[in-house]
Amino acid sequence: MPRTTRPRKGAARSARRTSAERAPSQSLQPPSETPHLPPEGPRYLYGIVRDAGDLDFGHLGVGAPATAVYAVKAAGLAALVSLAPGWVVDPTRAHLLGHQRVTEAILREHTLLPVAFGTVLASESRVHELLSTAHQELTQVLDALEGKVELGLKVLFHREHLVQRLVLEDARLARDPNEPEAEHERRLDAAVEDRARRDMRALMDGLSPRATATHEHPPVGERMLLNAAFLVERAGLDSFEEKVRSLAARSDTYAFRFTGPWAPYSFVDVRLGLGDAAGT
């Protein structure tokens, strides 16, 4: 039951999982050496990792054609960057897929401190400055994220399906012949809201012990009841997915959309503090 991955701007399934929507196939073979690029000119920043292991990712970056992604290193940290296509990078599908393509490649081998889509710094020297001036905070965040990734879970429902289930379970929710329709609708709305709240809380209670941290984003649209992110140890991914599968199997009232693993956008709140950087 593979998790779905989709393009994300980034700052964060059904029991019948939808098919994965992945970036177009690209070669992940790194270049023989770090690309020789002019030190000046804007750099697109994907995230921060520790300066360890292979940090050349080849031509995967945002732009057309795809740009070379490489590491700018300082004091044990490495910023993964590429030449920026401009000072402002619009959130087009191609750009979002390019950003996702790079973060997925980095995440396979490294703990990643991600930055928001569209983050552009003026030059390589500004990237060095970022690593130096924010070194302590960046290191602390990487320590907290070590060996962890983000998983997402959205739960949706059809109101009428839940109403039917509730009326079957409690005959008192059926409309009385003398009851005004508006009053009956108010009773049903209250019952639906109460049941959905209790079910989502039980779901979170069942999953939270398997995560290091959780974050609940606002639901999107009338059908969504839960829009949650979980910070999970890599070693616990299979256990977490099995628990989601188990909880989803107990209910035919809700639809589950389970995604990831992602870079842990929902659990990072770092202000880069560089005045010329877009998207920070």
UniProtKB/TrEMBL annotation:
InterPro entries: GvpL/GvpF
GO cellular component, one term: gas vesicle
Annotated segments matching region Disordered: 1-42
Biased composition (Basic residues): 1-16
Keywords noted in UniProt: Gas vesicle
Comp. bias regions, Pro residues: 32-41
This protein's name: Gas vesicle protein, GvpL/GvpF family
Lineage: Bacteria, Pseudomonadati, Myxococcota, Myxococcia, Myxococcales
